Amino acid sequence: MKNNLEAIRKSRGIKQEELADLLAVSRQTIGSLENGRYNPSIILAFKLAKFFGMSIEEIFIYEEETHDESENI
Fold first, then answer.
1. What global pTM score does this model have?
2. What is d(CA 13, CA 20) in angstroms, rounded to the nearest whole number?
3. Do 11 and 1 form a contact (C-beta atoms < 8 A)?
4. Which of 35, 31, 3, 1 is nearest to 15 (CA)?
5. What whole-number distance in Å separates Cα of residue 62 and Cα of residue 59?
6. CA–CA gap between residue 3 and residue 7 (Å, rounded)
7. Exposed, middle or buried: residue 24 (CB in 10 Å: 0-12, 13-18, 19+)?
8. Burial classification of residue 5, based on how many CB atoms lie within 10 Å of its CB (0-12 exposed, 13-18 middle, 19 or more buried)
9. Angle, CA of 9, 15 and 16, to the nearest 5°
10. pLDDT digit string, tens, across residues 13-44
């Protein structure tokens, strides 16, 4: 899942470790979120949105996977 987390965090002058501490997760979790290697739980997504005063949709960009029509035959 794509996201704007890194840009938002940096624009606020917050380090990965600081954000992780505030949300009670590891710094590696924040890094993995920013790099798209990990999708947040709904609870973590809400915590991030609340922390930044934004909606989940402003932070995370959901893109449905498209399937080739021939795969369904």
1. 0.82
2. 14
3. no
4. 31
5. 10
6. 9
7. exposed
8. buried
9. 85
10. 999 999 999 999 999 999 999 999 999 999 99
Backbone angles phi, psi at 66, to 5 degrees: -100, 140
Q: What would the pLDDT profile of 39-54 be if each residue is shown by its tens digit? A: 999 999 999 999 999 9
Tokens of 17: 């470790």
* Total count of residues recorded for the chain: 73
List the structure tokens of 15.
Answer: 């380090």
Residue 10 tokens read as 């940096």
Token reading at 18: 């600081």
- Domains parsed from the chain with CATH numbers: 2-64 (1.10.260.40)
User: Which amino acid type is present at position 69?
Assistant: E
Q: Cβ atoms within 10 A of the Cβ of 19, count?
A: 22
- Give 60's strand partners: 3
